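ugh ok fine here u go
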Amino acid sequence: MTRPTSLRQKLGLVAFGFFLTVLVLEVAPRLGGFIILSLQEHRNALAMRQKGAYRIMCIGESTTQGQYPALLEQALNRSDTGIRFSVIDRGLAATRTPFLVNRLESDIDVYHPDMVLAMMGCNDYGPHMPYEPETSSIAGQFIRALRTYKLARIAWQHIASLGRMSGTHSKALSWRRGEMMTLRVKETSRKESGMNPTTDGDHWALGDAHENGGKYAEATAYKKALEINPGNDQAYCDLGLVLQEQGDLTAAVAAYKKALEINPRNCQVYVALGAAYREGRKFVQAEAALKKALDINSGDEDVDENANAWLVVVYRDWGKLAKTVAASKKVLEINPRNKQAYEGMLWAYMRGFGDWSQPRRWLEDAVKRTTAPPEQLFDALSTVYTEMGDTKLAKYYCDKAEALRLREYNPSVARSYHRLKEILERRGVKLVCVQYPLRNIAPLRKIFQGREAGIVFVDNEKIFKDAVKKSSIQVYFMDMFAGDFGHCTDKGNALLAGNIADVLLREVFGK
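structure:
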């Protein structure tokens, strides 16, 4: 006869099941990170072992890491040059050009490349944020020093990058602070070196100046402001932003909740809390926090835009197609220039949400309602018309986007490319600049106008446009996060690698 299960045993089984679930959730991302980083390091180690091989080091973001470099090595080694090629993958998801260039010299010292191949710049938008700011706590430093933590973080960034929007890797929030705060930050930035803060407002402003300057480890002035005035809810919010940038989501959420205890109607804090929950993949809580911000908002369009824009990101990561589109439409109604809105919309329709004529109407309306549409809005319309089979209008909007890129290239990207060239010239390493698929090469060339001698440029526009025209965008791209291009499928990476190999063999090795 089977003995009945006691309440204690039932509770024990539930607790054990919960423990196993947490264990799986904790181990899985680290295991994924271990696999991704191990594969990348293994390939690089194999490349280093090939004595006498011509070494090519690829740098870039998530469109490089684990994408085309291995296929490029295969394509080059199928040629009859008599040269053995080894390709080193130094791509890193969710990075910007300053970080890639800052680590370049140490990479050269380790891998000794004969050539550096750069395809970068798609993540450079808004104020620059350092990739790995230091944490001020000893416990935090210990955790971040653990190899498993680093592997898990790389895995997370790599996976998130497959569906991310460009805007989501910028500062946690982009709402405008009040006029008094703006004036205080400007004054503090001007006097920062000689300032002797005495009030909580002074410390708060000093912390904000540090944060705006990218000095996250120094933004602990917020803590000093809170020691003087524990009732400063905005200081708690800003401290949460710093902690979130440092990767300490638990502490960030605690800071946001403390701010809400002080002021339960601070819409900005609810938006920040929603962004933090989204980063931790807690979508139910993220949605609730962002909707709360909208519920208590008293007509501030900045709050409406930011809360709905973060809802776009939350629903996209959650896989909610209809909700992603609905939130995107709301954002476009508030601000036709908001990049997250049309990126989210494209993501949903590429996954078969509905008729492409709907995003076409919304995007064209957005163009009409703004005096200076951004290039990405034209890129999005070009993508929509390509999917609808209207090549004439697709080209029209593509040309308008290219005209904007030619007129003003991102200054962060331009500075990074100039530094890249200077470093490689000093180290005697060949530079190859690769333009992203579907994009015109002219804006990239313009960066080096008058200084392009010795640089090899790889144009991927025509070959991808021809390929897409014969089939569809989905065959070559998993998403369109940049508006006019996205992360390549296996077929897209093979096309990219093959075209790069053809250019190198022809222009560098004479084949």
